[in-house]
Structure prediction request, 367 residues.
Amino acid sequence: MDQDVKRVFNFSAGPAVLPVPALKQAQKDLLALPGVGASVMEISHRSKTFSEILEKAKANVKTLLRVPDNYRILFLQGGASLQFSMVAMNLLRGSGKPADYIITGSWGGKAAKEAKKEGTVNIAWDGKNENYVRVPDRDELKLSPDAAYVHFTSNETIQGVQFPAEPSVGDIPLVCDASSDILSRPIPVERYGIIYAGAQKNIGPSGVALVIIREDLLERSSETLPSLLNYKLMAEENSLYNTPPTFAIYMIMLVTNWLLDTFKTLERVAENNTKKASLLYKVIDESNGFYKGHAQPKWRSNMNVTWRLPSEDLEKEFVREATSVGLTELKGHRSVGGCRASIYNAMPLEGVETLCAFMKDFQQKHG
Ligand SMILES: *Cc1c(COP(=O)(O)O)cnc(C)c1O
Prediction:
């Protein structure tokens, strides 16, 4: 990076901070990929070069998440939001069965809303009345015996509520929106039917969604679906039915290269994330109520730390002062207010430490 380029500590919820080594590599090869003489944005998605990029991105995801051989890894457009519909179009529409939704925050609610357009949705649990501060216990779930699938959101980005582990749902396919914690920790992929994630939180730029789907579920996709919304067809075509978001997939390759080079395993990535989140929660917990965490401690997120201050004016002042010292995007989501620090994989420890020091100072001044 040029000496005169100053990067802030960017706590944006998404699109979010990316690892500097990945950005530098993209910058270095922006005008011409070595041996190609053109940018990755300027070459055919069916070229040997791009095919190698796509396969490397898939291989990296497979290695990091230890994806079993009977799963397919797809890169699709329309973000996580189109997956809300696509899951339901492929697995619910015409199935004659209900789909169960566990709602622990705003995104889960949106997923259920889209699914209702495709078939019968059973809300197995909804934390709305408690203002989304926790995840349900197993015995609180009202699961249907014959559900087409059970859908949950592993990490609710807006409320900062995270499942410590996936709910157990027996043989019913488990579908997970993992947009804001994918590749932040190991997960037993073999317990899932579908895992999907918009890339722009933890694995790359916007414009692409990663979808990991168990092969037998592909048989449920009806031929009457639009081609681009048909999992089976997209899997058969290796995500290349039409032109995929090539630059975004290239960035996912660089980001996953960085994860493998720096951490090697998701266990180590998770350790690092827990360390970062613990520092912030410690400041909140030791503030004598000046900072009030939103989620209940057992279910608070390692990715999105959410809290309130004693007044909205102080929250505004907090965000303003933080921004002025290079700690940016700390305003909570417009739907819930308060403050939020998104500390995805690429947020350096130094960024979190700087924020912690700022929070202590701010409390001294205004507490
Ligand atoms: C950001 C986010 C979405 C929406 O992602 P888009 O790619 O913008 O559609 C969905 N679910 C979760 C958990 C998110 O964090």
